[in-house]
Amino acid sequence: MTTDVDRPRPVRPSVPLSDRVFRGVVRAAGGTVLLIMGAIGIFLAYQAIPTLREFGWGFFTEASFVPDREELGIAAVGLFTLQVAGVAIVIAFPLALATALYISEYAPARLKRTLIAALDLMAAIPSVVYGLFGFVFLTPHIIYLSRWLSKYLGFLPFFEVNTDVNAASWEQSMYTSSPFIAGFVVAMMILPFAASIMREVFAQAPLGEREGALALGSTRWGVIRSVVLPFGKGGIIGGTMLALGRALGETIAVVMILAPVFDIRFRVLENGGVTISSLIALRFGEATPSQLSALLAAGLMLFLFTLVVNTVASMIVARSRSGSATEI
Amino acid sequence: MAAPTLERTVVEAPAVVDDEPRKRDLSTTTLDDVLAALGSILGALGLVWVLYANLLPTSGTLGFVVAWFVVFLMLYAGVTAMRHPRTVMADRVAAAIIHAFAGLVGVALLFVIGYTAYRGADALGYGNFFTSDLSAAGPLDPLTVGGVLHALVGTLVEITIAVAITLPLGVGCAVFLNEVGGRFARPVRTVVEAMTALPSIVAGLFVFTTVLLMAGLPRSGLAASLAISVMMLPIIARSAEVVLRVVPGGLREASLALGASQWQTVWRVVLPTARPSLATALILGIARGIGETSPVLLTAGYTTYLTFDPTSGPMVSLPLMTYQLSRSSEAVDQSRAFGAATVLLLVVLLLFVIARVVAQRSKTGRR
Question: Which residues cross the membrane (chain A) (predicted)?
Answer without folding.
Answer: 28-49, 74-103, 115-143, 180-198, 243-262, 292-318
